[in-house]
Design a protein that fits this description.
The chain is mainly beta. The chain has one helix and eight strands. Helix content is 8%, strand content 54%. Strands 1-2-3-4-5-6-7-8 form an eight-stranded antiparallel barrel. A hairpin with a 3-residue loop joins strand 2 and strand 3.
Length: 85
């Protein structure tokens, strides 16, 4: 369900082997460390829609398995992220 996903995606995430996280997914926004900026998002079904200044992005078919985040990005690329603790 959306609420299950909304709780399980919270936290700091990055790619395998990265020294620091890329995102901090919060209750109502995703903070991008690289941009030092947070953007609002919504969870709809198993997708996250992120609202940037001039556009939006969709992370499709999101799954969280323990400390691994799986999704397909706007370009159709399958992405795996890892939780930073």
């Amino acid at each position: 369900t959306d609420s299950f996903l909304s709780v399980n995606i919270l936290g700091k995430w990055g790619g395998l082997g990265e020294a620091s996280p890329v995102w901090d997914i919060r209750k109502d926004s995703i903070y991008y460390f690289q941009h030092s900026k947070a953007y609002a998002y919504k969870v709809i079904n198993k997708n996250i829609i992120i609202q940037f200044e001039n556009s939006s992005a969709v992370l499709k078919n999101i799954k969280v398995n323990n400390d691994t985040l799986f999704f397909t990005d706007d370009a159709g690329i399958f992405v795996k992220g890892y939780r930073f603790k």
